[in-house]
Amino acid sequence: MFNARKMGLLLASTLFFSVSHLRAEPAPAWPEDIRPAKGAPNIVVILVDDVSFGATELFGGPIATPNFKALSEHGVKYNNFHVNALCAPSRASLLTGYNDHQVGFGTITEAAAPYPGYNTILPSAVTPVAAVLKAGGYSTAAFGKWHNTPYWQVDPTGPYDLWPTGRWGFEHFYGFLAAADSQYYPRLYRDHTPVETPQTPDQGYHFTIDITNDAINWLHTHDALEHDKPFFIYYATGATHEPHQVPHQWVEKYKGRFDQGWDVLRQQVFERQKALGVIPANAKLTPRPAGLPAWDSLDPDQKKLVAHQMEVYAAFAEQTDHEIGRLLAAIRDEGQADNTLVLEIFGDNGGSAEGGPLGHDAKNADGTTPSVKDRLKIADALGSEHYLNHYAAAWAWALTAPFQGTKQDASHLGGTTDPLVISWPARFPQAKGLRSQFSHLVDIAPTLYEAAHITPPTITDSVAQWPLEGTSLLYTLDQPNAPSRHHIQYFATNGNRSIYANGWWAGILAQQTWESPNGSAYLTQGQHDTHQWELYNLNDDYSQASDLAAHYPEKLKELQALFDKEAKRNQVDPLRPGIAGLYPVGAAGGQKVFTYRTGTSRIDQWHAPHLASGHYTLAADVDVPAHGGNGVVFADGGLNGGVVLFVQNHHLVYQANSNGYTVGKILSENVLTPGKHHIVVTVEPADTGTTAPHSKNLIWLGSHKPVPGNVTISLDGKVSKKTHFDSVAVQMSETLDIGQDMGSAVSADYTAPATFSGTVEKLVVSETP
User: Fold this and answer.
1) Structure pTM?
2) Where is the Sulfatase N-terminal domain (predicted)?
3) Left (φ > 0), alpha (ψ -120 to 50) or beta: where does 131 sit?
């Protein structure tokens, strides 16, 4: 029997089948991953902070660096490698392949100025190394000190575009974002998020150990999940920048090793350099400059103190080498060592002479320096979390042997030359020994690109990219005697400047670090060109021992003109003769009223109220639970300077600490009962004409010069008490926290973080004009 309905369904299905086969079905496919070039190596770039050319044993120095030495045995070492004379500028060149002023880093981030060469803002015409490698199929991660984000962006709320994980191209970051930080209480960030240290100093915490652990963990995770994908690791220690902080057992190894003093030490280093062949046989040892004392001019107590400072520094450097060794061992353990290109730069500038004639460590409550006898009483604690110590300037000079100059001196080789080792066993198994081609940080990026078979982009985000400044160094690995391909290089830091051209060097020193006010601070804005231009033929005079300016005036004029040309091309002008205004008065863009609540913490000093002026009001609304309130309501600073409002035994306490001394403490007469309360603390300068000038030392770590103040505390509208504080100061390397005290404790009366058991509903800090 004919079934029309069934016939209709059959026809419809046949028609659908026929039509569906007329349509081309796309083959299933996922978007292809970016694939690196075949054989692309893993890349590890290691950068150590503030080390003189002659500090490590590999280059004739007194400091044991067995892992640096071992790396050189699987690669080559360079004795003519150059850096910029200051940390952030060096890092900018390293991480981009461009000159420092060219990318806005003619100075450190804390001293940014509104000029293209000094604003610390990465230009859109520049694609950083990590971004290029990431686009070429690499995993990218940075660990340690990061000093290339504008200070106004170092804020938990962002913006994040110029953070390591922003335009700089890293997929992961763990470390701090500043010139320096405590090795025991660093202001840590994981990617964009502020985090706390996994241990306390008593439990063995140390920053260099921590970043190494994190880097190794990242490596293991990468090996487990992306074994066949190459990685790029940028590992930059906070060591050996001040503060020189290192566990005591490392210091013990160097006890008595520097009692001969810096003059003899420098001669010893020079002789070892000759014996090792890391400097030419005809190189001369340059003399001690005016302004640095002869060792024999010191009295016995001074010698004892500064010799111990050097013991601490040497220990710090050796511990750093040990941690670098742990990182490289992890790569070996994963079987990745052969095809890993390692570049280790042992110093981002010359050794630091910022410690002044006798170094610095303890301070009196008023910011003055104690007597040498009193400083000796605490000397055994140097290296611990309690002191932000730095060695005497002459140690930095001694270890720059055979050169003139130290950190900040861009006119001499001592400030601009540091050791480099490159190792890549899979590609260059026979590459060994010394290389002497002139080279610079801008050569690193082209080296990495050639190794990875990557061509950097010519256009990024519709913006044409500038051509790279440097030239790859891979040719030096298998051509030991090849002529240098880097022919011209300018240097400029704080008014000190120079130009290199095909073996000739002309430079002028504006000011030595130890010539600055108080002999220890960063160079200040002032008159430059107080010294004369100098001229050297480095082809015959490796250490700049013979000034030829009077003999070849025309050559000097030629190089001066070349410097002017390079300065104009690279945005060096207007020349900045120093670093000033490190702490802009009126932080957070001039904001004067700040409102906080429970949960707000880790506010950097750049974005916090300027309490060092000693003229402000703090008003807090708190809710105390039935079982009573206890802990910190407000804290700003740390153990070397700060103010804190906390509750102890049901009483409000407002306390100030300056350089580790309690300089003011006030307790409320009334107890803080359960329920809601309104607290007001008023601080007024004892002398209304007093200002808060910058600290003469450790501007990025220490506190502003203490200012005396009169403090009043009231509870629920009733004035409880008024008293005088000898000073009000805030430690720059610590943070502002609400409802807790993160980092080191401002007061010894509690143990950080001493979280408040109640709720800080609202806390307003008002700076008084």
Assistant:
1) 0.94
2) 41-454
3) alpha
